[in-house]
Amino acid sequence: MKFLIVFSVFISIQLVAQNPYTLDWSDEFNGSAIDTTKWKHEIGGGGWGNNEYQYYTSSTSNSFVNGGYLHIKALQQQMGTNNYTSARMITKGKYSLQHGKVEAKIKLPIGPGTWPAFWMLGDNISTVSWPACGEIDIMEHVNSETKVYGTIHYDSVGHRYYGGSKACDVTNWHVYGLEWNATKLMWFLDGVKYYETSINTARSELNNPFYFLLNVAIGGNWPGGPNQFTPFPAEMLVDFIRVYKPALGTDELTASMIELVPNPADQTIQLISNFSNESFSNGQLWSMEGRFVQSIDFIASLIDIQHLEKGTYFISFEVNGKQVVKQFLKQ
After folding, report:
1. Catalytic residue among 52, 140, 179, 205
2. Active-site residue identified among 52, 103, 135, 179
3. Could you give the CA distance from residue 146 to residue 216 in angstroms, rounded to a whole number?
4. pTM of the model
5. What's the mean pLDDT in 124-141?
6. Per-residue pLDDT for 86 more than 70?
7. 140 belongs to the catalytic site
8. Which of 21, 120, 254, 307 makes an SS bond possible with 210, Cβ 3.0 to 4.6 Å?
9. Residue-range domains of the chain with CATH
10. Residue 177: pLDDT above 60?
11. Residue 135 falls in the annotated catalytic set
């Protein structure tokens, strides 16, 4: 029989609060130019392994920062034998991630043959090649589809891939998220999980360091080619990318035995688990940006979240001395 673990929440004066996640890397794109300490451009055509049509450049016609956003533009423009130009920006050699939480606010172009993406490749791609390096696609979109994709690629006696998708209007702003630890990957759209997959021995490369990529491809094996109905320029806008790492060692097995319901939530939240009330202690509520909001006391009452602004939050607490972090979306 499951116990219903419920809380009363009170705001307390707390001099020291330990954030279970800390911001490890970010780009808010608030400057006047692309930050070259964080990004570099990959240059060239040749199809990029997918028979794509574009030539990637470092020109400010194809990628630039303005108005607080990163702009990546695919243009119908001749470059050598390529009829289109675009940009492909990477953090390789500048920043890599091995487990953590990623969120990026992005607005996408649509049209036949368009293929924007925010994704990751293994740092060791130069030595082991693809797919042995592994690939984690945080967000991909093709053509004019009303959904986005989250996918993994790896080598298990040949190329293997698995993934999920979620319906949305990509021409509006959305926050695309990934949570990644040693045992699983989870994809989120606006704070709501839509796909999860495990990391096992056959997928061991997915536990290595990975770097980020942002690009808008045109044409290729998946979307097919553009046509007279494809609008150009095809522009992807990025408001921010934020990467968080756990500051506390969390117990994944214990966390898997606890649920936050409902999630998303509007008025109140409850925790459901097999643990008794006395097992819980040191509860704290945090914003996604790492701001301590309030303490949580384990008394017979619901968590009142009416006062919170809309967005993603997480609760950290201990269960029989083991650290647990649970995330929820306030509607």
Report:
1. 140
2. 135
3. 17
4. 0.79
5. 98
6. yes
7. yes
8. 120
9. 3-20+247-330 (2.60.40), 23-246 (2.60.120.200)
10. yes
11. yes
